[in-house]
Amino acid sequence: MIEPLMTPRSVRSSIRWIVGLMVLLILGHPPEGPAQTTQPDVPDPSTLIDRCRQAAGGKEKLESVRSIHMTGTIEMPAQNIQGTLQAWLKPDRALIVAELPGIGQIRSGIYDQVGYELSDITGARLLDETEKKQLLDGLNPDNQFQRFLELKDPHVTGPETLGKRKAWKLQGKTSDGDTESHWIDTETFYLLKSRMTLHHQMGKIPVEMTLSEYRSVDGIPLPSVIVQRTGPAVQKIHLTDIRLNPSINDNVFALPDQIRQLVERSSKTSQE
Question: What is the pTM of this model?
Protein backbone atom coordinates (compact mmCIF):
# COMPACT_ATOMS: atom_id res chain seq x y z
CA MET A 1 0.00 0.00 0.00
CA ILE A 2 1.26 3.48 -0.82
CA GLU A 3 1.30 5.56 2.33
CA PRO A 4 -0.62 8.85 2.55
CA LEU A 5 1.22 12.02 1.67
CA MET A 6 1.17 13.66 5.09
CA THR A 7 3.28 11.21 7.09
CA PRO A 8 6.78 11.63 8.50
CA ARG A 9 7.97 8.55 6.60
CA SER A 10 6.80 9.86 3.22
CA VAL A 11 8.55 13.18 3.84
CA ARG A 12 11.73 11.42 4.98
CA SER A 13 11.61 9.13 1.93
CA SER A 14 11.33 12.16 -0.35
CA ILE A 15 14.27 13.85 1.33
CA ARG A 16 16.51 10.77 1.07
CA TRP A 17 15.96 10.52 -2.70
CA ILE A 18 16.55 14.24 -3.07
CA VAL A 19 19.87 13.92 -1.23
CA GLY A 20 21.03 11.24 -3.68
CA LEU A 21 19.95 13.23 -6.71
CA MET A 22 21.47 16.47 -5.43
CA VAL A 23 24.86 14.86 -4.84
CA LEU A 24 24.84 13.68 -8.45
CA LEU A 25 23.69 17.02 -9.82
CA ILE A 26 25.89 19.16 -7.65
CA LEU A 27 29.08 18.05 -9.38
CA GLY A 28 28.87 20.20 -12.45
CA HIS A 29 27.65 20.18 -16.04
CA PRO A 30 28.46 22.23 -19.13
CA PRO A 31 26.43 25.43 -19.57
CA GLU A 32 23.13 25.19 -21.41
CA GLY A 33 23.63 25.49 -25.14
CA PRO A 34 21.44 26.66 -28.02
CA ALA A 35 18.50 24.53 -29.21
CA GLN A 36 19.45 21.67 -31.49
CA THR A 37 18.54 21.98 -35.14
CA THR A 38 19.43 18.40 -36.14
CA GLN A 39 18.31 15.06 -34.74
CA PRO A 40 21.18 13.56 -32.68
CA ASP A 41 22.10 9.89 -32.98
CA VAL A 42 20.83 7.70 -30.15
CA PRO A 43 23.84 6.90 -27.93
CA ASP A 44 24.43 3.49 -26.43
CA PRO A 45 24.03 3.30 -22.62
CA SER A 46 27.75 3.23 -21.80
CA THR A 47 28.44 6.24 -24.04
CA LEU A 48 25.60 8.24 -22.48
CA ILE A 49 26.74 7.43 -18.94
CA ASP A 50 30.33 8.27 -19.86
CA ARG A 51 29.23 11.65 -21.22
CA CYS A 52 27.44 12.34 -17.93
CA ARG A 53 30.56 11.42 -16.00
CA GLN A 54 32.79 13.54 -18.24
CA ALA A 55 30.42 16.49 -17.89
CA ALA A 56 30.84 16.21 -14.12
CA GLY A 57 34.61 16.43 -14.50
CA GLY A 58 35.48 12.79 -13.87
CA LYS A 59 36.36 10.94 -10.68
CA GLU A 60 38.81 13.57 -9.42
CA LYS A 61 36.22 16.33 -9.54
CA LEU A 62 33.57 14.10 -7.95
CA GLU A 63 35.89 13.46 -5.03
CA SER A 64 36.69 17.17 -4.63
CA VAL A 65 33.21 17.85 -3.24
CA ARG A 66 33.69 16.82 0.38
CA SER A 67 30.77 18.59 2.04
CA ILE A 68 27.45 20.20 1.12
CA HIS A 69 25.02 22.39 3.02
CA MET A 70 21.53 23.00 1.63
CA THR A 71 18.58 25.02 2.89
CA GLY A 72 15.15 25.46 1.38
CA THR A 73 11.45 24.78 1.71
CA ILE A 74 9.35 21.64 1.37
CA GLU A 75 5.77 22.05 0.21
CA MET A 76 2.69 19.82 0.03
CA PRO A 77 0.49 21.76 -2.43
CA ALA A 78 -2.69 19.68 -2.02
CA GLN A 79 -2.65 20.28 1.75
CA ASN A 80 -1.47 23.91 1.48
CA ILE A 81 1.42 23.08 3.84
CA GLN A 82 4.90 24.54 3.58
CA GLY A 83 7.83 23.96 5.89
CA THR A 84 11.59 24.30 6.00
CA LEU A 85 14.34 21.91 4.96
CA GLN A 86 18.03 21.86 5.83
CA ALA A 87 20.73 19.28 5.04
CA TRP A 88 24.38 18.81 5.99
CA LEU A 89 26.24 16.19 3.94
CA LYS A 90 29.64 14.54 3.92
CA PRO A 91 30.74 11.38 2.06
CA ASP A 92 29.91 9.02 4.96
CA ARG A 93 27.49 11.02 7.11
CA ALA A 94 24.41 13.16 6.77
CA LEU A 95 21.77 15.07 8.68
CA ILE A 96 18.52 16.18 7.04
CA VAL A 97 16.01 18.17 9.08
CA ALA A 98 12.49 19.09 7.94
CA GLU A 99 10.01 21.20 9.93
CA LEU A 100 6.37 20.99 8.84
CA PRO A 101 3.23 22.53 10.41
CA GLY A 102 1.01 19.80 11.83
CA ILE A 103 3.77 17.19 11.51
CA GLY A 104 6.61 18.76 13.47
CA GLN A 105 10.29 18.04 13.06
CA ILE A 106 11.62 15.07 11.10
CA ARG A 107 15.32 14.26 11.37
CA SER A 108 16.94 11.69 9.14
CA GLY A 109 20.62 10.93 9.22
CA ILE A 110 23.54 8.59 9.22
CA TYR A 111 26.61 8.71 11.44
CA ASP A 112 29.15 6.07 12.43
CA GLN A 113 27.32 3.55 10.17
CA VAL A 114 24.03 4.11 12.02
CA GLY A 115 21.11 5.25 9.88
CA TYR A 116 18.03 6.62 11.59
CA GLU A 117 14.94 8.77 11.56
CA LEU A 118 13.56 10.76 14.48
CA SER A 119 10.07 12.24 14.23
CA ASP A 120 7.96 14.28 16.63
CA ILE A 121 5.01 12.05 15.69
CA THR A 122 6.43 8.54 15.26
CA GLY A 123 9.47 8.76 17.51
CA ALA A 124 12.87 7.16 16.92
CA ARG A 125 13.65 4.39 14.43
CA LEU A 126 16.80 2.78 13.03
CA LEU A 127 16.92 2.41 9.24
CA ASP A 128 17.09 -1.14 7.95
CA GLU A 129 20.06 -2.20 5.81
CA THR A 130 18.33 -1.45 2.49
CA GLU A 131 17.31 2.05 3.59
CA LYS A 132 20.77 2.72 4.99
CA LYS A 133 22.43 1.60 1.75
CA GLN A 134 20.18 3.93 -0.25
CA LEU A 135 21.24 6.84 1.92
CA LEU A 136 24.94 5.93 1.89
CA ASP A 137 24.93 5.47 -1.88
CA GLY A 138 23.46 8.94 -2.22
CA LEU A 139 26.34 10.43 -0.23
CA ASN A 140 29.02 9.03 -2.55
CA PRO A 141 28.96 11.04 -5.82
CA ASP A 142 30.59 8.35 -7.93
CA ASN A 143 28.02 5.80 -6.73
CA GLN A 144 25.35 7.71 -8.63
CA PHE A 145 27.11 6.99 -11.92
CA GLN A 146 27.82 3.45 -10.75
CA ARG A 147 24.06 3.06 -10.23
CA PHE A 148 23.52 3.81 -13.92
CA LEU A 149 26.28 1.40 -14.94
CA GLU A 150 24.87 -1.45 -12.84
CA LEU A 151 21.45 -1.37 -14.47
CA LYS A 152 20.70 -4.72 -16.08
CA ASP A 153 19.71 -4.82 -19.76
CA PRO A 154 20.08 -1.04 -20.12
CA HIS A 155 18.86 0.68 -23.26
CA VAL A 156 18.48 4.26 -24.49
CA THR A 157 15.51 5.62 -26.41
CA GLY A 158 14.44 9.05 -27.60
CA PRO A 159 14.94 11.82 -27.71
CA GLU A 160 11.74 12.65 -25.82
CA THR A 161 10.39 16.14 -25.18
CA LEU A 162 10.32 17.26 -21.55
CA GLY A 163 8.97 20.79 -21.46
CA LYS A 164 11.26 22.82 -23.69
CA ARG A 165 14.11 20.32 -23.56
CA LYS A 166 14.96 17.09 -25.36
CA ALA A 167 16.11 14.11 -23.34
CA TRP A 168 17.45 10.60 -23.78
CA LYS A 169 15.66 7.97 -21.72
CA LEU A 170 18.03 5.52 -20.03
CA GLN A 171 16.15 2.49 -18.72
CA GLY A 172 17.10 -0.82 -17.14
CA LYS A 173 16.51 -3.03 -14.13
CA THR A 174 18.13 -2.86 -10.71
CA SER A 175 19.59 -5.86 -8.90
CA ASP A 176 16.22 -6.14 -7.12
CA GLY A 177 14.42 -6.49 -10.45
CA ASP A 178 12.85 -3.02 -10.33
CA THR A 179 12.57 -1.04 -13.57
CA GLU A 180 14.37 2.30 -13.34
CA SER A 181 14.40 5.18 -15.84
CA HIS A 182 16.40 8.41 -16.10
CA TRP A 183 15.87 11.24 -18.59
CA ILE A 184 19.12 13.03 -19.49
CA ASP A 185 19.28 16.25 -21.49
CA THR A 186 20.61 15.61 -25.01
CA GLU A 187 22.75 18.78 -24.96
CA THR A 188 23.74 19.65 -21.40
CA PHE A 189 23.54 16.18 -19.86
CA TYR A 190 21.53 17.55 -16.94
CA LEU A 191 19.41 14.93 -15.22
CA LEU A 192 15.86 16.16 -15.90
CA LYS A 193 13.76 13.34 -14.47
CA SER A 194 14.12 10.00 -12.70
CA ARG A 195 11.58 7.25 -12.12
CA MET A 196 12.56 4.55 -9.65
CA THR A 197 11.45 2.42 -6.70
CA LEU A 198 11.94 3.37 -3.08
CA HIS A 199 12.44 0.61 -0.50
CA HIS A 200 11.46 0.98 3.15
CA GLN A 201 9.67 -0.88 5.94
CA MET A 202 6.26 -0.68 4.28
CA GLY A 203 7.48 -2.21 1.02
CA LYS A 204 8.24 -0.79 -2.41
CA ILE A 205 6.98 2.63 -3.50
CA PRO A 206 7.30 3.94 -7.09
CA VAL A 207 8.52 7.54 -7.14
CA GLU A 208 9.16 10.09 -9.88
CA MET A 209 11.42 13.13 -9.54
CA THR A 210 11.54 16.09 -11.91
CA LEU A 211 14.25 18.74 -11.70
CA SER A 212 14.03 22.29 -13.00
CA GLU A 213 14.97 25.97 -12.59
CA TYR A 214 18.69 25.44 -12.83
CA ARG A 215 20.87 28.22 -11.48
CA SER A 216 24.59 28.77 -11.07
CA VAL A 217 26.25 27.93 -7.74
CA ASP A 218 29.96 28.72 -7.72
CA GLY A 219 29.80 28.56 -11.51
CA ILE A 220 27.98 25.21 -11.51
CA PRO A 221 24.38 25.00 -12.81
CA LEU A 222 22.10 23.27 -10.30
CA PRO A 223 18.33 22.68 -10.07
CA SER A 224 16.59 24.74 -7.42
CA VAL A 225 13.20 23.03 -7.77
CA ILE A 226 12.67 19.29 -7.29
CA VAL A 227 9.22 17.74 -7.43
CA GLN A 228 8.45 14.21 -6.20
CA ARG A 229 5.30 12.40 -7.29
CA THR A 230 4.13 9.23 -5.59
CA GLY A 231 0.82 8.37 -7.23
CA PRO A 232 -1.42 11.41 -6.63
CA ALA A 233 0.81 12.68 -3.81
CA VAL A 234 3.11 15.60 -4.67
CA GLN A 235 5.95 17.12 -2.65
CA LYS A 236 7.91 20.11 -3.89
CA ILE A 237 11.39 21.09 -2.71
CA HIS A 238 12.68 24.60 -3.39
CA LEU A 239 16.38 24.93 -2.58
CA THR A 240 17.14 28.54 -1.73
CA ASP A 241 20.80 28.13 -0.75
CA ILE A 242 23.40 25.50 -1.69
CA ARG A 243 27.01 25.66 -0.48
CA LEU A 244 29.81 23.40 -1.65
CA ASN A 245 32.71 22.38 0.60
CA PRO A 246 31.67 24.44 3.63
CA SER A 247 33.32 23.73 6.98
CA ILE A 248 30.95 21.44 8.91
CA ASN A 249 31.80 20.39 12.47
CA ASP A 250 31.26 16.65 12.94
CA ASN A 251 29.27 17.43 16.11
CA VAL A 252 26.44 18.39 13.74
CA PHE A 253 26.03 14.72 12.84
CA ALA A 254 26.20 13.29 16.37
CA LEU A 255 23.49 10.73 17.10
CA PRO A 256 20.57 12.06 19.19
CA ASP A 257 20.15 10.48 22.64
CA GLN A 258 17.04 8.55 21.57
CA ILE A 259 18.97 6.96 18.70
CA ARG A 260 21.97 6.06 20.84
CA GLN A 261 19.62 4.33 23.27
CA LEU A 262 18.09 2.34 20.40
CA VAL A 263 21.56 1.30 19.23
CA GLU A 264 22.52 0.18 22.74
CA ARG A 265 19.31 -1.87 23.12
CA SER A 266 19.80 -3.41 19.69
CA SER A 267 23.38 -4.34 20.54
CA LYS A 268 22.35 -6.00 23.81
CA THR A 269 19.60 -7.95 22.06
CA SER A 270 21.98 -9.26 19.39
CA GLN A 271 24.40 -10.45 22.10
CA GLU A 272 21.78 -12.43 23.99
Answer: 0.74
